[in-house]
């Protein structure tokens, strides 16, 4: 799962508000950049986890462990979705109140590239997963598409 590290505070609830406060609202720009770097490190870990799960699935022999692979796909998808929401919030903060349009555009480009990368990895894994083609097992293909749906 994606988590904030000790160096940068995590989001907290505002005392008298029905909406949670965004922990980065008053943070220096350097802290926002550090958070983006942390999110990128967490994404890299998630990519490694997805790759490991796919390799394990492929090595699990004749009776492939599809439920375990599907579970990791779901968890990683959720982690990427959480990271994306936070990156987009940082981008909005930079583009709006912080008046840092160039930095905001770089963050947006990074987000777009990560989305493309993840969708490509997901597609390649689905295509390279034995027993998951439309002809072989349409139900398994459907389950992976549902889990990867936010990415494809």
From TrEMBL:
<dbReference type="Pfam" id="PF14966">
    <property type="entry name" value="DNA_repr_REX1B"/>
</dbReference>
<protein>
    <submittedName>
        <fullName>Required for excision 1-B domain containing</fullName>
    </submittedName>
</protein>
<keyword id="KW-0175">Coiled coil</keyword>
<dbReference type="InterPro" id="IPR039491">
    <property type="entry name" value="REX1-B"/>
</dbReference>
<feature type="coiled-coil region">
    <location>
        <begin position="29"/>
        <end position="56"/>
    </location>
</feature>
């Amino acid at each position: 799962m994606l988590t904030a590290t000790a160096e940068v505070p995590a989001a907290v609830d505002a005392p008298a508000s029905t909406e949670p406060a965004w922990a980065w609202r008053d943070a220096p720009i350097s802290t926002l950049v550090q958070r983006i770097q942390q999110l990128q490190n967490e994404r890299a870990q998630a990519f490694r986890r997805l790759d490991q799960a796919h390799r394990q699935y492929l090595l699990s022999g004749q009776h492939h462990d599809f439920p375990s692979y599907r579970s990791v796909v779901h968890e990683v998808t959720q982690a990427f979705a959480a990271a994306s929401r936070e990156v987009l919030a940082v981008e909005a903060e930079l583009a709006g109140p912080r008046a840092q349009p160039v930095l905001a555009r770089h963050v947006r480009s990074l987000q777009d590239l990560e989305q493309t990368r993840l969708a490509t990895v997901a597609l390649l894994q689905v295509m390279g997963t034995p027993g998951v083609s439309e002809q072989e097992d349409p139900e398994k293909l459907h389950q992976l598409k549902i889990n990867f749906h936010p990415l494809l």
